[in-house]
Write a structure and sequence with these properties.
26% helix, 11 helices, 391 residues, alpha+beta, 21 strands
Length: 391
């Protein structure tokens, strides 16, 4: 058994982390961000601020002979007034690339969100500790994937043998942007979000810029993607634009062109895949905005409903079917001069036949089984055969 004197404390430094675009020093330790400081300074949306601080795809990657490890973290856990309690965030452990367990951290801050009142209040809480014991003997690569849906400040790392950064695996880097579905929504754990599963199956390093409620064609996100080193790039566009009701068809097309133009400034020839929305029955032909079903919330059920009028499509209001048509048109026009630009209809990842067997539990987010299905399908469609990301 390890005693306190056996532990070696290793400073948490950027070379031990992958998947984050920025690391902020806080009074407690290190807070990973998935948007750089310049982008965060231009953002005024609390939802996006919360989402980008949740470390989906961010992981500690170490080389060590240690057989025991402790990681102190300060999580921020969400509580929605009137809804069932959320489970603690999950940390996934990989040893030499293979799943080797997981855990959670209790304590931490609590963010209480009242969707009916539109308020959010933070109550401070204590630091907690994640422990992994009985790790294999000998030198090995350790990955600890941080909870994809829980803001996590890294406070201290202790091991019973020295730790260093893992060697660069030499894999291609896949930079992906999307909505809460790409963020991970109701996936079981950080390595089982659909982008993480697809990256594992495709043999690539993931940088996940999936932001719950935040895929709104923001120029600062496009600039962040422009400036992030990557070999493969994908953008999953549409559902947040519809359910937030932020623009009409007239504005949507130029905004997509501008977003893609900015990415191409930094990645002129990288394979760039535009992914249209997966099936979401409540918004296929009904415009936004989307709203919580407060009647269901009072009964402990979280569901969402589209509140727009389908007749408003004639005046430019957007639905998922309109967005798919427009994205396909834009890609076809641009691909004439950009042979590395590709299009994927999201219904190939989750479509009508799937909805019968795997309905969306809250009407908009896929569950854990659907994340696995989407990850496997994306890997087959993008990384294999003649896919956009073929090796």
């Amino acid at each position: 058994m390890n005693t306190e004197d056996d532990w070696i404390t290793t400073p948490l430094t950027p070379n031990l982390l992958r998947g984050a675009l920025d690391l902020e020093r806080t009074e407690h330790g290190l807070l990973p961000h998935r948007l750089p400081a310049r982008a965060r300074a231009q953002n005024t949306d609390g939802q996006l601020a919360m989402a980008e601080s949740q470390p989906s795809g961010v992981r500690l990657v170490l080389r060590t002979r240690a057989t025991a490890l402790e990681l102190d973290t300060l999580p921020t856990k969400r509580h929605y007034v009137g809804a069932p309690p959320r489970p603690d965030g999950v940390y996934d452990l990989l040893v030499d690339g293979r799943p080797a367990g997981g855990g959670s951290v209790t304590g931490g801050n609590t963010l209480t969100i009242d969707m009916a009142a539109g308020t959010a209040v933070v109550e401070p809480g204590p630091v907690g500790t994640l422990r992994f014991a009985d790790l294999p003997e000998g030198g090995k690569d350790i990955e600890i994937w941080l909870p994809h849906n829980e803001t996590t400040e890294l406070v201290a790392l202790r091991t019973n043998a020295p730790v260093g950064p893992a060697p660069d695996p030499g894999r291609r880097v896949w930079l992906h942007h999307g909505s809460s579905i790409s963020h991970g929504s109701d996936a079981a754990s950080p390595t089982t979000t659909w982008p993480a599963l697809a990256a594992s199956l495709g043999g690539v390093e993931l940088v996940n810029l999936g932001f719950g409620g935040g895929a709104l064609l923001d120029p600062f996100t496009a600039r962040a993607m422009r400036d992030t080193p990557a070999d493969l790039i994908s953008v999953k566009i549409g559902i947040n634009v519809v359910n937030a009701d932020v623009m009409r068809l007239r504005a949507f097309g130029p905004a997509v062109h501008g977003f893609l133009d900015t990415i191409r400034e930094g990645h002129p020839t990288a394979p760039l895949l535009v992914v249209a929305p997966v099936l979401c029955p409540v918004q296929e032909d009904t415009p936004g905005p989307l709203a919580p079903d407060f009647a269901g919330l009072a009964e402990g059920r979280v569901r969402f409903v589209a509140t727009g009028d389908p007749a408003q499509r004639a005046s430019g209001k957007l639905t998922l079917n309109i967005i798919r048509d427009e994205l396909a048109r834009i890609v076809a026009v641009r691909a004439v001069d950009d042979p590395n630009l590709h299009y994927l209809d999201g219904r190939e990842l989750y479509g009508e036949a799937d909805a019968a067997d795997l309905p969306l539990p809250d009407a908009i987010h896929p569950d854990a089984a659907t994340h696995r299905l989407m990850g496997e399908r994306f890997a087959r469609l993008a990384f294999a055969g003649q896919g956009a990301f073929k090796g």
